[in-house]
Amino acid sequence: MSVKAAIDIGTNSVRLLVADCQAGRIVPLVKELRTTRLGQGVHHSGRLQPDAVERTLAAIDALAAIAKQRQADEIIAVATSAVRDAVNGPEFIQLCRARTGVTVQILSGIEEARLSFNGALQGRIAGSRQLVIDIGGGSTELAFGGQKELLYVHSLNVGAVRLKDIFPADADGVVTNIPEIRRYVTAAIKALPPLVLPDAITGVGGTITSLAAIAQQLTAYDSEKVHGYYLDTACVNRLLAALAALPLAERKKTAGLQPERADIIVYGIAILAALLDELGSNGLTVSERDILEGILEQLSAKQII
């Protein structure tokens, strides 16, 4: 076995994948997630907050320990939107190295999109017009290409945590301003070069995998039922309206939705709905594989991330 580990330090969560990487194949051994909300408030303050930093460092330390227990001989850690946007992002990287021994690389939005594309399509051949959508806490990445050759990549500064900071819910957690949120996201999309409707769309990230679980009313998360699930646009819009209208306490009871994601899920769905509308698409296929697999694929190929 050649055991490698990847840690993704995102705006909403820190995730770990430990896998056996041999002969171009990535066989997952362990997947873990810790919700730390590192990027909360970054959009307004421009800084990572001390409490969020402490939660995140504790999560990185715990996940690195799991990787070592599984005898990973290499750990690659990357940070995305929250850390690259924050003025104290470099300080966080230094603190992480000092406190946990983990060296973290800050990815640009373009690098993040490229890795998500490769990870999502790992193990299968893309069509000539394949789009991968990765909705995160701080940003949304779009990667378009085929045969694993990217034709374009875009990074939008709209994510579920960021939108929650910009458009707070009411006192009960009801998200009352969906039209305004949709207009905000659509304006960001229209600032890009025109998007072309691809032959197929693949979606990754917690918003999209959660949607697949909610659509199937899974009382326990089942990755085999989530991976490969087709989310049609009508279902996305129906769930957006239904979940936005619920008070937070009720939304947390939704089958298939992790309670710690309940306060941001509506914002992530709004991003997806706006993208599908702009593309004129009927829906997308959900992938459990994402940036983590992309990192390990490049590592096993001895390429620099």
Topology summary:
Layout: E1 3-9, E2 13-22, E3 25-35, H1 42-45, H2 50-69, E4 75-79, H3 81-85, H4 89-100, E5 104-106, H5 109-120, E6 130-135, E7 140-146, E8 149-156, H6 160-166, H7 178-190, E9 200-204, H8 206-215, H9 223-226, E10 230-232, H10 233-244, H11 248-251, H12 265-279, E11 283-286, H13 291-300
Parallel strand pairs: 1-4, 4-5, 6-9, 9-11
Antiparallel strand pairs: 1-2, 2-3, 6-7, 7-8, 10-11
Helix pairs in contact: 2-4, 5-13, 6-12, 7-12, 8-12, 10-12
Domain Ppx/GppA phosphatase N-terminal: 18-298
GO molecular function, one term: pyrophosphatase activity
Protein name: Exopolyphosphatase/guanosine-5'-triphosphate, 3'-diphosphate pyrophosphatase
Descriptive notes:
This protein has 305 residues and is an alpha/beta fold. It has two domains: 2-109, Nucleotidyltransferase, domain 5 (2-Layer Sandwich); 123-286, Exopolyphosphatase. Domain 2 (Nucleotidyltransferase, domain 5, 2-Layer Sandwich), CATH 3.30.420. The protein is built from 13 helices and eleven strands. It has helices spanning 42-45, 50-69, 81-85, 89-100, 109-120, 160-166, 178-190, 206-215, 223-226, 233-244, 248-251, 265-279, 291-300; strands at 3-9, 13-22, 25-35, 75-79, 104-106, 130-135, 140-146, 149-156, 200-204, 230-232, 283-286. It has a six-stranded mixed beta sheet, with helices on both faces. The protein has a five-stranded mixed beta sheet with strand order 3-2-1-4-5, sandwiched between helices. Helix 8 crosses helix 12 (265-279). The chain is globular. The model has no long low-confidence stretch (mean pLDDT 93).
